[in-house]
């Protein structure tokens, strides 16, 4: 369980972007943050992975406050952020890219080998394309390799920032099944998505962020079905951007 309590954060000397964010991510769930451009969605993820230090408030992982810890310390506690794009080394093979996920533990060779084999079982693509260069993969396949790499450290929580960015509908379907596969491994997933309908359709719970505050939280299906939400916050996109 991750709990954001009164989280305030921003950049440099500019004012606060997050202005007291409160919500909880249930253990083992997929939770999707949606909201207009500039609402602060990505900023929530950056504070959670340690890229940005909170100015006030707490980010509780279980009972431990991880707000303000270094990215390396947060990674060691099992919270992994998948970068928005350009996450793979195109000239390395799929296997090499996945194995790089355990770089911080590179001396534990046996454990890493065993973990890689487990991951190749979870994502058939990894086994099928192990020796192909990442450059030869489609956009959706690359996203799968990025998720597989995130799993190398056996994380409890994976943070995904706009995973559908630049993907066509077929790749989005592949992405959704990879997110489910991650989650079925017991991983708690926190997603930020511009594509509201797509994001909520993968999720158990939805969080609406606007102007650096949480406006609404509910079950994702409930949020998707709420006509007021679609019209008011997403310009009707809950209906129009189905992949
Ligand atoms: N590194 C940064 N330095 C200064 N301001 C930033 C930085 N990153 C983001 N911001 C500003 O913080 C605000 C919130 O950005 P954030 O990326 O969290 O929004 P978002 O809800 O994810 O929206 P979007 O989908 O447009 O990225 C924006 O006004 C943005 O310009």
Automatic annotation (TrEMBL):
<dbReference type="GO" id="GO:0016887">
    <property type="term" value="F:ATP hydrolysis activity"/>
</dbReference>
<keyword id="KW-0067">ATP-binding</keyword>
<keyword id="KW-0813">Transport</keyword>
<dbReference type="GO" id="GO:0015658">
    <property type="term" value="F:branched-chain amino acid transmembrane transporter activity"/>
</dbReference>
<comment type="similarity">
    <text>Belongs to the ABC transporter superfamily.</text>
</comment>
<dbReference type="Pfam" id="PF00005">
    <property type="entry name" value="ABC_tran"/>
</dbReference>
<keyword id="KW-0029">Amino-acid transport</keyword>
<keyword id="KW-0547">Nucleotide-binding</keyword>
<dbReference type="InterPro" id="IPR052156">
    <property type="entry name" value="BCAA_Transport_ATP-bd_LivF"/>
</dbReference>
<feature type="domain" description="ABC transporter">
    <location>
        <begin position="2"/>
        <end position="236"/>
    </location>
</feature>
<dbReference type="GO" id="GO:0005524">
    <property type="term" value="F:ATP binding"/>
</dbReference>
<dbReference type="InterPro" id="IPR003439">
    <property type="entry name" value="ABC_transporter-like_ATP-bd"/>
</dbReference>
<dbReference type="GO" id="GO:0015807">
    <property type="term" value="P:L-amino acid transport"/>
</dbReference>
<dbReference type="InterPro" id="IPR003593">
    <property type="entry name" value="AAA+_ATPase"/>
</dbReference>
<dbReference type="InterPro" id="IPR027417">
    <property type="entry name" value="P-loop_NTPase"/>
</dbReference>
<protein>
    <submittedName>
        <fullName>High-affinity branched-chain amino acid transport ATP-binding protein LivF</fullName>
    </submittedName>
</protein>
């Amino acid at each position: 369980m991750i709990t954001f309590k009164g989280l305030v954060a921003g950049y440099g000397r500019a004012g606060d972007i997050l202005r007291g964010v409160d919500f909880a991510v249930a253990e083992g769930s997929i939770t999707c943050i949606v909201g207009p451009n500039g609402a602060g969605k990505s900023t929530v993820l950056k504070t959670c992975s340690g890229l940005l230090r909170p100015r006030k408030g707490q980010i509780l992982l279980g009972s431990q406050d991880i707000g303000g810890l270094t990215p390396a310390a947060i990674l060691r506690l099992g919270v992994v952020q998948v970068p928005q794009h350009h996450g793979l080394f195109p000239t390395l093979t799929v296997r090499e890219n996945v194995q790089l996920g355990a770089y911080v533990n590179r001396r534990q060779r046996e454990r890493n080998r065993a973990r890689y084999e487990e991951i190749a079982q979870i994502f058939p693509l990894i086994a099928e394309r192990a020796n192909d260069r990442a450059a030869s993969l489609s956009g959706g396949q690359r996203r799968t390799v990025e998720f597989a790499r995130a799993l190398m450290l056996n994380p409890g929580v994976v943070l995904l920032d706009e995973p559908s960015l630049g993907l066509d509908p077929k790749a989005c379907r592949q992405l959704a099944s990879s997110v489910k596969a991650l989650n079925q491994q017991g991983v708690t997933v926190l997603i930020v998505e511009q594509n509201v309908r797509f994001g909520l359709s993968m999720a158990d719970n939805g969080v609406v962020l606007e102007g650096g505050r949480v406006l609404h939280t509910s079950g994702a299906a409930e949020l998707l079905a709420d006509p007021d939400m679609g019209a008011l916050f997403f310009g009707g996109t809950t209906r129009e951007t189905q992949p």
